[in-house]
Amino acid sequence: MSETSKDKSKFQSNKDKQFITDIRKSLQEAIQILNELLMYDKIESGVLELEITSFNVTELFQSITIYEIQVSECFHFFHHN
After folding, report:
1. Assign residue 70 a region: left if phi > 0, alpha if psi is -120 to 50, beta otherwise?
2. Which of 22, 39, 43, 52 has the fewest CB atoms found within 10 Å of its own CB?
3. Mean pLDDT over all residues of the chain?
């Protein structure tokens, strides 16, 4: 087995793939937090203004529930196939 084949095989285990996935997810969450902090800073400085608007709370929770079901189904599919 060549050296490059050995290097590639190091990252083929499920444990390594999960580790890389966890790192990617953590980085995405960190970026989201930074974006939210920057947005808060813009609101505080008056660069960005918030608009007060009405919305249907029931529809909001229904859409969140639908999204949660879809994510759950995807998670189940990828972890059992």
Report:
1. alpha
2. 52
3. 76
